[in-house]
Amino acid sequence: MPRLNLDHLDISDFELRTKARSLGFGRRLYYAKGNALWLKTQISHRSDSLISSPHAELGWQHELDFYQAHASSGDLNFFLPHQIIQQLFKINHEQFEQALILVDAPAHFQIMPHQQSITQIRQHLLQAVEPLICLQELGYLHADLKQEHFVNNQGRVCLLDFEHVQILHQNDLHELNATPRYMAPELFQGQAKSLQSEVYALGVIFYEWLSGQRLQATDYLDWAFLHCQRLKVELPQHLQAFQGLLEEMLSKQKQHRLADFQAVKDYLMTEIE
């Protein structure tokens, strides 16, 4: 993407889109409609504002570090076109020190499967798996997979939000930060995230998209009961071709689950017609 200078951007064009909960942590997400860009930033504890969270700041810095470490690698296909700003700037009287600017891209899963053939659906799922294979081959887990973290940039699926990204095989060094909707059963039992728990999270994303229904639970314990005991894959008759895939991605026993994202791709390529 073309380099941008915040001094030359029309700050009045920036519309605050931060979720209410994140506002209290000092996170700010702005959308610049005129430029079709997103600006993500974080209030620092060093600023005059009383609104800040050490945890949110750590996640924000972790994401920036990940972008800076790998963005120069042209063969990585999971990043959106982006720019990192490292200069003092103000929006709406709040001061920031760093920003991540991303191009606007439509959600990958906004297309409804009932409008597509089995072949088209398989291709849509394969597109979502590709950036995860790339991330896996680089030696990382995304560790916060959600449907909204998949976007389509000119036919290429990219991932958003790398605040929780972690190195494979060093999961014991990370505290568990996970959204119960996407948590594999073993995570409720205190185990660390792994490629198999990532496959499970992707299975939830696929299942909700294919079924057209979101999983429902009332609280953390109810989510635990759902994932550990109650969840049963039931797809409409015209989508039965994907039943076996989801059952292997959503197996309650980690050792019976598809081992990684390459295995998910192989299943899609060889088992679904």
TrEMBL record:
Q: Which InterPro entries does the entry mention?
A: Kinase-like_dom_sf (IPR011009), Prot_kinase_dom (IPR000719)
Query: Organism, per UniProt?
Result: Acinetobacter lwoffii NCTC 5866 = CIP 64.10 = NIPH 512
**Pfam families attached to this UniProt entry:** Pkinase (PF00069)
| Name of this chain's protein | Protein kinase domain-containing protein
Q: Which residues form the Protein kinase domain?
A: 1-269
What broad taxonomic lineage does this protein's source fall under?
A: Bacteria, Pseudomonadati, Pseudomonadota, Gammaproteobacteria, Moraxellales
